[in-house]
Amino acid sequence: MEVEKTQDETAQAADGKESIEKDESDSVQGDDQTGEKAATILTEAASGTDPKPQGGEDFPLSAKIAELEAKLAESHDQFLRKAADFENFRKRMNQEKQSAIEFANQTLLLDLIPIIDDFERAIIAGESSNDLTSFLDGIRMIEKQLTTALENKWGLKRFISAGQPFDPNLHEALYMEKSAEVSEPTVQEDLFKGYYLKDRVIRAAKVKVLMPFDEGASSK
Asked: Do residues 163 and 189 lie in contact, with contact meaning Cβ atoms separated by under 8 Å?
């Protein structure tokens, strides 16, 4: 009986040892499989292949990349459209600016055309008549019509300088003459009248100026 009991204990001990060795083997095998899966994921990530987690479901990185690429393409398309719109706008503005420069004086010229017509009629009338007085009166009326239109509508106004003190801001002296009648440089005659455009001098009057005698020279 004791011999049989010893044999049974020996057999049980052997079975226990085999069970422990099997569990350890299964554990090592499981660790090896886990390591292999991790290595596979790292290899696929390094090669540009989207890794797949356990269970076979797609990794969301590829979908996110596709979404970002679509947004980038849309933004690039919008940029190109905006750039094209701006270029068309720039060309249109340049054309309008050039047109405005070319036709800036159109209104002024339209105001001058009727006066040119009056000059033509006056010339025709003068050629068929010996009445110089009437012809001269007609010319004076046209000149008055022209200067009035330019002053009232465009702000062009001429100024008279004769008898005024010489002012280099308003006058350009073409001739100078010594005179005992003046104590300071004085405009004697308007050779060409000066003009204001609103409150700015756009042409100085071209004048003849009387200059006072030098006191030292006169005393001698």
From this structure: no
In angstroms, the CA 194 to CA 166 distance is 13
Residue 174: enclosing H or E segment and its boundaries? strand 171-179
Res 206 pLDDT > 80? yes
Q: What is the CA radius of gyration of the chain?
A: 54
Is the overall model pTM greater than 0.85, yes or no?
Answer: no
DSSP 8-state class, residue 131? -
- φ, ψ dihedrals at 149, nearest 5°: -65, -45
**φ, ψ (nearest 5 deg) of residue 207:** -135, 165
d(CA 206, CA 192): 5
Burial of 166 (0-12, 13-18, 19+ CB in 10 A): buried
Tokens of 198: 């609103």
* β pairing state of 194-197 and 156-159: antiparallel
Percent of the chain with pLDDT over 90: 51
